[in-house]
Design a protein that fits this description.
The chain contains eleven helices and 17 strands. The protein has 402 residues and is an alpha/beta fold. It is elongated.
């Protein structure tokens, strides 16, 4: 056989092998919709607010138990006071950099919410705290990892990272997320698909500040002139901060919480507020932070003093050429599964900004479709859990080894 013929034969055999594996993975996932819904019920019914370490870790235990039953290797990266990180891995048939499946186990809901609103399904929609954001995505990732492990491994190694503090800015998990992402070929973040089915190709960056003003107390009737009102100083600062908003550029500054004072008849000696900054372009970050800091530290009264600190931060997700190629691959896989998908930009923040920030091609919101996140009406379109899992698995297959 001539060399050209041998090469053509080898290419044909590889294509047939890949097609066979695609079919086997799809069939494996198709057969497990009931198991997926059952696992989703189990973890939705566990309270796992960001500050409930025991609950967040209990969700991790449930996921680990499932993965280990399917021979997926797992390790725990301990954190305190946040929930631990669960890291799962599936071997690659070929050499190359791994692909990361990312998701967070924490929710925004208080302890007791799962008992008040347990998992339920009505008219094709699943309900419960965190059902879409993002416990359905965790189930999807776990089953995709299990599918590849059961069927002999993925084309490239897979890493599943299940974190526990995204809703508060990932203060404990960020370093581990970034360290893993520096060495991966691609990242798929299983945040919920948008209500129209779109995945997310761009997100704003977000920074959460706490600002304080220190004044001087005085009796408001007897010696008002001897006092320095921290509330008055803070009010002027709030007007200056909100003036930084530029809707055309996608920049917003919101003072969402404020408090201060000692009593109604005392000139306020102290005031505090929390500020939410959102921005689009990575290059705008330092300029905006400096502007907010300058306003915080500048006071009209010489005896007043201002201070500010960053309490949490998300980086923006900006689509790179490599991330665009990842999106195109996902669109093609989704079409084969039977659904169309668009890309969307959102002002919300996610861990995908951290992975994109270290240069990893990243696609976000590949999880099952839902809406109403962070509200009592949060829902999941239950019928999307298997198709989204299949589209993710097919995309991983088509990336091949790298």
């Amino acid at each position: 056989m001539r060399q050209g013929s041998r090469r053509a034969s080898s290419d044909l055999e590889m294509a047939m092998t890949e097609t066979n594996l695609e079919r086997r993975v799809s069939d494996w996932l198709d057969a497990r919709e009931g198991e997926m819904i059952s696992m989703l019920r189990d973890i939705v019914n566990i309270d796992s607010g960001s500050y409930d370490k025991a609950g967040v870790d209990a969700v991790g235990d449930a996921i680990r138990l499932f993965l280990e039953r399917h021979a997926v290797a797992c390790e725990t990266i301990p954190l305190d006071p946040q929930g631990d990180i669960l890291r799962a891995s599936v071997r690659g048939v070929g050499e190359g950099r791994p692909v990361m499946l990312l998701g967070h186990r924490d929710t925004v809901f208080p302890k007791g919410e799962a008992a008040r609103r347990p998992f339920s399904v009505r008219d094709g929609r699943a309900y419960g705290p965190g059902v879409a954001d993002m416990k359905a995505g965790l189930v999807m990732n776990a089953f995709v990892l299990a599918a590849f492990q059961e069927l002999g491994g993925a084309p490239a190694p897979l890493i599943g990272l299940f974190t526990g503090d995204e809703e508060i800015g990932s203060p404990g998990s960020r370093a581990a997320i970034e360290a893993q992402a520096r060495d991966v070929r691609a990242v798929f973040n299983a945040e919920p698909g948008r209500p129209n089915g779109a995945v997310v190709t761009g997100r704003k960056g977000g920074i959460f500040f706490e600002a304080e003003v220190f004044g001087k107390a005085a009796h408001s009737g007897v010696n008002f002139q001897d006092g320095v009102s921290a509330i008055a100083e803070l009010a002027r600062k709030i007007l200056a901060w909100t003036a930084l908003t530029d809707l055309e550029a996608g920049t917003t500054v919101n003072v969402g919480l404020m408090s201060g004072g000692q009593s109604v008849n005392t000139v306020a000696p102290h005031a505090v507020c929390q500020i939410d900054l959102r921005y689009v372009q990575p290059g705008d970050r330092d300029r905006l932070v400096e502007a907010i800091r300058a306003i915080a530290e500048r006071c009209d009264h010489p005896m007043a003093r201002g201070a500010i600190a960053i309490r949490g931060e998300f980086l923006p997700l900006a689509q790179s050429p490599a991330s665009k190629a990842l999106f195109d691959a996902y669109v093609s896989s989704a079409a084969q599964v039977g659904f169309a998908v668009d890309g969307a930009f959102t002002g919300g923040c996610a861990d995908s900004g951290f992975t994109a920030g270290v240069g990893a091609p990243t696609l976000c919101a590949v999880g099952p479709v839902g809406g109403g996140a962070h509200s009592p009406g949060e829902y999941l379109d239950a019928a999307t859990i298997v198709p989204r899992a299949k589209a993710l698995a097919l995309t991983v297959l088509r990336l091949g080894p790298a």
